[in-house]
């Protein structure tokens, strides 16, 4: 199943609901294009909801890192939401918890942007 996305807004945060596979080929292209499009519109608070992602390969992880880097260069951030059990295992093994803010609750992910802004202002 190729990657499909749906984009929605909540409290000034862009939520990208991902479904399918983030893998070499179409999956990484769909994700890259979506993030580029959001950045071109000035949307830099992005949550990638991975609840319905059933597979991420190494190129998919590379694209997640690229997306995060691109957004941070624009002064924003990418948070990951609803990693699967397998996703959590991969992130543990590869130390990606040091790179990404991973959330298990959508409301918490949205609130974390406000907490980040408050911490940066202090």
Helical fraction = 40-55%
Number of domains: 1
Radius of gyration: 13 Å
How do the SSEs run, as a string of H and E?
A: EEHEHEHEH
CATH hierarchy class name: Alpha Beta
Number of strands: 5
**Uncertain ranges:** none
Give the second-level CATH assignment, the architecture: 2-Layer Sandwich
Helical stretch tally: 4
Within the largest sheet, what's the order of strands?
1-2-3-4-5
Q: Would you identify the CATH H-level superfamily?
A: STAS domain
Q: What sort of overall outline do the alpha carbons produce when their principal axes are compared? A: globular
Category from helices, strands and their pairing: alpha/beta
N-C termini distance? 45 Å
Main beta sheet strand tally, sense and closure: 5 strands, mixed
* CATH overall fold name: Transcription Regulator spoIIAA
Rounded mean pLDDT score: 92
Please state roughly what percent of the residues sit in beta strands, choosing from under 5%, 5-15%, 15-25%, 25-35%, 35-45% or over 45%: 25-35%
What does this protein look like?
The chain is 46% helix and 30% strand. With 122 residues, the protein is α/β, with parallel strands linked by helices. The protein has a single domain, classed as 2-Layer Sandwich (Transcription Regulator spoIIAA). It has a five-stranded mixed beta sheet with strand order 1-2-3-4-5, with helices on both faces. The longest helix is centred in the middle third of the chain and has 16 residues, at 58-73.
């Amino acid at each position: 199943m190729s990657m499909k996305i749906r984009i929605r807004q909540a409290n000034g945060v862009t939520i990208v609901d991902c479904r399918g596979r983030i893998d070499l080929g179409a999956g990484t292209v769909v994700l890259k294009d979506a993030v580029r499009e959001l950045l071109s519109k000035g949307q830099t608070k992005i949550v990638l909801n991975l609840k319905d992602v059933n597979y991420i390969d190494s190129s998919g992880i590379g694209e997640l890192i690229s997306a995060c880097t691109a957004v941070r260069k624009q002064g924003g951030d990418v948070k990951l939401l609803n990693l699967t059990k397998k996703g959590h295992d991969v992130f543990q093994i590869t130390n990606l918890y040091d790179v990404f803010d991973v959330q298990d609750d959508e409301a918490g992910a949205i609130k974390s942007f406000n907490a980040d802004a408050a911490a940066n202002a202090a």
